[in-house]
Write a structure and sequence with these properties.
This protein has twelve helices and five strands. With about 240 residues, it is mainly alpha-helical. Strand 2 (about 45), helix 3 and strand 3 form a beta-alpha-beta unit. Helix 4 (about 85-100) packs antiparallel against helix 5 (about 100-110). The longest helix is centred in the last third of the chain and has 19 residues, at about 175-195.
């Protein structure tokens, strides 16, 4: 494991000393695991690459891992998500230390769109880190669409109480069962928008939303963009 290397151990010792003295620290992607090894994440809300979130939760149960966030600031601890989120992290540090004007200027020069969430990029089955129950639950939701998918329905399908199901889902993904179902539906909607010529209204019907307004509202809330932003130039906007 890379954390056992001499270089990593040296970095962990330095981070631990710096953190204990009250110094601010920032890390993205796998770098967040260095902060965890230095016991700096305890009591904080943090993020990391979404496919590593489950592992981070297992290693450190005393922090809140918010895998939906691209950048998470909690006191002196600043963390960022997937590998390229280091760019978002640098823009945040520029904004916090040197002002919004410089951060926005750098963003324009580098052609970087502001991204506040990893949600649009999360694949529910990968979020579970190979958990068999989540994989089967995801398949069941896909097979049931566009019909209604409730927590009670899923609990019955897997022969367990809603509370037991919720506990397993929370442990594997950090999400509630209803939030996971919504993530699966929105991910499927995004796939349909990106790969088909279906109208947004038709996509909403296919993933079980009553109308396109509900889908648009949820995508703005979860991804920060309109559904049409996911439409490729080859399929054409509708």
């Amino acid at each position: 494991m890379r954390l056992q290397s001499d270089e990593a151990k040296s970095a962990i010792r330095a981070l631990k000393a710096h953190g204990r003295s009250g110094g601010p620290v920032a890390a993205s992607c796998t770098g967040v695991f260095l902060l965890q090894a230095a016991d700096l994440l305890v009591g904080h809300r943090v993020t990391t690459s979404w496919w590593l979130a489950a592992e981070l939760r297992q290693l450190e149960s005393r922090c809140v891992v918010d895998a939906d966030r691209m950048v998470c600031i909690d006191g002196s601890i600043t963390t960022a998500g997937a590998a390229l989120a280091q760019t978002d992290l640098m823009l945040h540090l520029l904004r916090a230390r040197l002002g919004s004007a410089l951060a926005e200027a750098v963003s324009r020069v580098m052609l970087i769109d502001g991204r506040q969430a990893q949600s649009p990029f999360i694949l529910p089955t990968l979020l579970s880190s190979g958990n068999d129950l989540i994989a089967r639950l995801t398949e069941k939701v896909h097979a049931t669409l566009p019909g209604p998918v409730t927590v009670a329905f899923l609990a019955d399908e897997f022969a367990m109480s809603t509370r037991t199901l919720s506990r397993h889902v929370k442990a594997a993904t950090g999400k509630s069962t209803s939030a996971l179902v919504q993530s699966i539906r929105l991910n499927h909607a995004r796939m349909l928008i990106e790969t088909s010529r279906m109208t947004i209204e038709n996509v909403a019907e296919q993933v079980g939303y009553g109308d396109a307004t509900a889908l648009r509202r949820l995508m703005r809330k979860m991804a920060g963009v309109r559904p049409s932003r996911f439409r490729s130039s080859t399929t054409g906007a509708r």
